[in-house]
Design a protein that fits this description.
- Pfam families: MFS_1.
- 81% of the residues lie in helices and 0% in strands.
- The chain has 16 helices and no strands.
- Helix 1 runs antiparallel to helix 8, helix 6 runs antiparallel to helix 14 and helix 10 runs parallel beside helix 14.
- The longest helix is centred in the middle third of the chain and has 36 residues.
């Protein structure tokens, strides 16, 4: 059965286009801010004696608080409207930037990460749903949402690295820049049209639960192995990628870690754009296959200490990163009705960020036990296995069911 989506609310053309653009920028900024601490881990290590386990803890606690926000506030904007959720979340996000800028040790850094995770989790599903609400062409909101996430990671990592390398007070300046951006975006959100009508059930919606419409459950289960592989790989790069680059290549600049992250996520964003008109099952197949090949090449680069091989493998894996996430969104999201969009998107992000954080935390623990290189070998093997399972799930899925999506 094909689900017919209700048309989005009508708004003035220029105002609607401007609102759509602002929401896309908001996604990029939020995700970019989440990647901002990654290039600073080397500085934290120098100033505070930061260890690999602590770097994965800082990353993991962010993801855990984000998951909590998705579980409780993920579908709230379906009931009280997009703007109230976004205004509150962006204000809390701005406060977290001040906490980051003021941090003088791991304690306040962890507090800042928790606050940031709560704000990002509350905002991200509302932003994705609002983009779909305001899209002029069916599928455009999904595509922009799929591009914005990896693009934000790339820009956040590179921007943070460049600021920390060339501007004073490297561990605080980047967060003050993000604070200013969020302040401007709060003003912009006040001017955009509301796209979701209020409805009863807001209090019930904040009870921890996953909101997956029955019609979308089967396809979400099919796409989940690839989604898990994508975000597990992203978690490794965001938490331990800089350490891997410094260890295997002998380069101690924060820029090399940022380049690793930006290569993965930047090629992911390009892949999303190039594959935007390809059938969903083909996108998922490309994503899973690219993950297998890219991670294998990256492992060879780590073994041979070849920067060219390491970055080439990262670029190929980046195609899988973008295509795997895009394929999941394109396959699953059209199966939700308008009032189910934020809830379903929050469930997708729940799976993504759980895969993003839990394996990275485990890897951080094992780095102290068996070393970074051996941990990387095992982690890469697990990602390859999950991507292979995902490829098999897509290949064996009934074509008619995917084509309806």
């Amino acid at each position: 059965m094909t689900i017919a989506l209700e048309p989005p609310p009508r708004h003035g053309g220029l105002r609607r286009t401007a609102a759509f653009t602002l929401l896309a920028v908001d996604v990029v900024t939020l995700i970019g801010a989440s990647a901002a601490p990654t290039p600073l881990y080397a500085l934290y290590q120098t100033q505070w004696g930061f260890t690999p386990l602590q770097s994965t803890l800082v990353f993991g606690i962010y993801a855990a608080s984000l998951l909590l926000a998705l579980l409780t506030a993920g579908s709230l904007s379906d009931y009280i409207g997009r703007r109230p959720v976004l205004l509150t979340a962006l204000a809390v996000e701005a406060a977290s930037m001040i906490a980051f800028a003021s941090a003088d040790g791991i304690g306040l850094l962890l507090v800042a990460r928790v606050v940031q995770g709560l704000a990002t989790g509350a905002a991200i599903s509302a932003l994705g749903a609002a983009l779909i609400d305001l899209e002029r062409t069916p599928g455009r909101g999904v595509t922009v949402n799929s591009i914005a996430a990896p693009a934000g990671l790339a820009l956040g990592a590179i921007g943070s690295s460049l600021i920390s390398e060339h501007l004073p007070r490297p561990t605080s300046t980047v967060f003050l820049v993000f604070f200013a951006l969020f302040a401007l975006e709060i003003v912009g959100i006040c001017a955009i049209p509301e796209t979701a009508a209020r409805q009863p059930g807001a209090l019930a919606s904040v009870r921890p639960a996953l909101a997956v419409p029955a019609g979308a459950l089967h396809m979400l289960l099919r796409a989940s192995p690839c989604l898990i592989a994508v975000w597990a790989l992203g978690g490794f790069y965001l938490s331990l990628g800089p350490s891997l680059a410094r260890t295997t290549l002998g380069v101690h600049s924060s820029l090399i870690g940022a380049i690793m992250v930006a290569t993965l996520t930047g090629t992911g964003a390009v892949a999303v754009f190039l594959l935007r008109n390809v059938a969903p099952h083909r996108i998922l197949s490309v994503g899973a296959a690219a993950l297998v090949a890219g991670v294998a090449i990256t492992l060879v680069g780590a073994e041979t200490t070849s920067s060219v091989t390491l970055l080439a493998g990262t670029a190929v894996a980046g195609v899988g990163f973008g295509a795997g996430f895009q394929g999941t969104i394109h396959t699953v999201m059209p199966l939700a009705r308008p009032h189910e969009r934020a809830g379903l998107l929050s469930s997708i992000y729940m799976i993504a960020y759980l895969a993003n954080s839990a394996p990275a935390l485990i890897a951080g623990y094992f780095v102290g036990r068996i070393g970074l290189v051996d941990t990387t070998r095992i982690y890469g093997g697990v990602v390859i296995a999950m991507a292979g399972i995902g490829l098999g799930a897509v290949v064996t899925a009934p074509r008619a069911r995917i084509c309806r999506a």
